Amino acid sequence: MTTTTEQQQDQSAAVYLPHPRLVSPEGGRAKPWVSSMAEYEALYKESIAEPEQFWTRMATETLTWDRPFRHVTHGSLKNGDVAWFPDGRLNVAYNCVDRWALADPDRVAFVYEADEPGKATRVTYKELQEQVCSLANVLAAFGLRKGETVAIYMPMIPEAAVAMLACARLGLVHTVVFAGFSSASLAERVADARARVVITADEGLRGGRPIRTKAIVDEALQSCPEVEHVLVFRRTGSEGVPFSAPRDVWWHEAVAAQRPYCPPVEVSAEDPLFLLYTSGSTGKPKGVVHTSGGYLLGAALTLKYVFDIHEGDVFCCTADIGWITGHSYVVYGPLALGATSVIFESVPTYPDASRYWRLVEEHRITQFYTAPTAIRALRRHGDDFVTRCDLSSLRVIGSVGEPINPDAWTWYSEVVGGGRCAVVDTYWQTETGSHVITPLPGATPAKPGSATFPFFGVELAILDPTSGAELEGNDVSGVLAIKRPWPSMARTIAGDHKRFLDTYLKPYPGYYFAGDGASRDADGYYWIRGRVDDVINVSGHRMSTAEVESALICHPAVAESAVVGAPDEVTGQSICAFVTLKDSYTATDALTAELVKEVRTRIGPIATPKTLILVDELPKTRSGKIIRRILRKVVAGEADQLGDLSTLSDQSILEVLVNKVTAAL
Ligand code: PRX
């Protein structure tokens, strides 16, 4: 099988110039914000050479400050004390909602495409302001005050965004937990964040199937006695949803009792806006902390330049609000620009594989943003599902979350984009807050599979993984690092600044270490090669191998487990688990299925191992350490390239291992 990396290298020569329709638009449409490489280079150069001047201009033009900042940056990557606009004060909800509600109340903030096809509704900025204010008053009435954390566990409905913005209005910190996570995962996050209030819905609905959202919250809260209130939005209105007053409060009843205006609470630019849990290389997820000023600026600016947002545009990002992409590009970025954002509750194949494309046609979407895994899956259904829809409104189509293989890129560009759109392959992470490597649609000649060049203010480096030396010039490969702070970077991990330093800033002192391998080709283009740590990327979702291993070990039959990522044509990588059993257990298909289920129940469906192989022994060093490198090679079909095996204590296990994997995959 050809790997993504090989395909990338083979095709790295193909270059797609920005389409003339984008660079010199007709029909009175505005020119792109950046319409040539020379313009990009000039702005980029300014952002690096004159950062104070550049960021002062951007932050002043883009955001409304209650108290203007006098200092632009503070601290360094070396010290881990980064702050941006530290003496500036603002309110995020005011910036995202009130500015537009006051100037243009009927402008549409959200188009809500419900799970049920044909049931789209709209929320204007004025309506959004009232909803956010009423809910903020409910939260204030619960006794919540600036700096406290609220957990949000909701389906993809506008009320999830309303909940985030209501927190921001009061200076509360939200932590949105993806509603596909299990009750145990939710409980772990609620407890770690010390949330006293959880906002949720009675049920979710995806592809016509109800999801028992509130029941999952109730299970989780059995181990979170500190939660005082659960605010429940009625999404489906099903009978029999568990509800226990006075802890549980219906959203519609609570907001009806509140005044639909609530003064925004002024916060420091450095006050936290949210925590978002993401997987790391240990079993415990980390609560990445983002701030109010720098984060909002990063989300707004990247959206403006990378998707070339102009007045009247309808932007659609299909990511769930439970991930950083949903935070930055469904909620904060679009609203900070006063744009219209589509909230998509359903799945791309419900009722059929045309759902996304009908959505584009119906709402005249101008920019569309999704993940390679969705692109690859939809491509398998055939071009008809796409071409039967009118996609002429599209100008920019984006990809995020994992490397996009050039053939999926080309299909996206040709079939979805009709050869008339810019494809932006955006590289970034939960921790970076917003795009860090990305093309600009009116300027950057694209190479399929490359995220191309750094965004403004992002100074990249490729480091030798062993020595940490910076590899100068082009045509180099190593690990990706960033050389200076940027406004939307995470500031810390909630309750564990040491872990923040150890994970990102200490591995290569003076640099932010991204955890990805990367190359800079002969033309200076960046190519992301995937994670270099124990994190795997399934359908653009980050999973820690240690987290899956911890779930497996909870089953009484499991003696040991090792989890690795296997290449997968649709999901990028899939989870492949190797398990040894305790002596009293026998390997059966039923037990294998039970172990898969164990992971699914403990973490959530996204962590389901695609392959689970019961083995007698795992490859180990003489000191008993599992050699995951061997397992990774075997599942990638590279058993002939195992490299140095001198540390392997028992070489005889290899043949059995290879045979088992071949039979299973
Ligand atoms: O490995 C990179 C991959 O996704 C990781 C970040 O995952 P997460 O924090 O969940 O955020 C996903 C959405 C931003 C990165 O370390 N990744 C993300 N975008 C790309 C990518 N890999 C290659 N190309 C991309 N465009």
Strand order of the largest sheet: 12-11-8-6-7-14-15-23
Helix content: 25-40%
Bound molecules: adenosine-5'-monophosphate-propyl ester
Using only C-alpha atoms, the radius of gyration works out to: 24 Å
Major beta-sheet overview: 8 strands, mixed
Organism: Coemansia javaensis
Protein name: Acetyl-coenzyme A synthetase
Domain AMP-dependent synthetase/ligase: 98-486
Catalytic activity: acetate + ATP + CoA = acetyl-CoA + AMP + diphosphate
Describe the structure in brief:
This protein is of the alpha/beta class and 665 residues long. 32% of the residues lie in helices and 22% in strands. Helix 19 links the parallel strand 29 (572-581) and strand 30.
Explain what you see:
Its EC number is 6.2.1.1. It is a single chain. With 665 residues, the chain is an alpha/beta fold. Helix 6 crosses helix 7 and helix 14 packs across helix 16. The chain contains 21 helices and 30 strands. 32% of the residues lie in helices and 22% in strands. The protein has an eight-stranded mixed β-sheet, sandwiched between helices. The protein starts with a helix and ends with a helix. The longest helix is centred in the N-terminal third of the chain and has 17 residues. Strand 29, helix 19 and strand 30 form a beta-alpha-beta unit. The radius of gyration is 24 Å and the shape is globular. The protein binds adenosine-5'-monophosphate-propyl ester (PRX).
Keywords:
AMP binding, disordered N terminus, ANL_N_sf, alpha/beta, 665 residues, binds adenosine-5'-monophosphate-propyl ester, 7-stranded mixed sheet, 8-stranded mixed sheet, Acetyl-coenzyme A synthetase, 22% strand, single chain
